[in-house]
Amino acid sequence: MTERNISKLDVEYYVENGKVLKQxxxxxxxxTEKGMAVLSDDGVLITSYSSEYYDETMKEAVRRLFGK
Length: 68
Prior knowledge:
The chain is an alpha+beta fold. It has one domain (about 10-65): TATA-Binding Protein, CATH 3.30.310. The protein has 2 helices and 4 strands; from the N terminus they run H-E-E-E-E-H. The protein has a 4-stranded antiparallel β-sheet with strand order 1-2-3-4. Strand 3 (about 35-40) and strand 4 (about 45-50) form a beta hairpin. The longest helix has 11 residues, at about 55-65.
């Protein structure tokens, strides 16, 4: 998390407020306009990053998810 400048509070925000997308395998992406976290089905954090790392495809997905 530190290499991407994200705090534990950021990850908690993503999980509590994110739209949940099932990924391949047994992982879930919690997506917000501020960033995202990917957790395994047993709640282990796989990865997380802030929206500054979103590419254009991800930005479009966020716009569609949040109706903007």
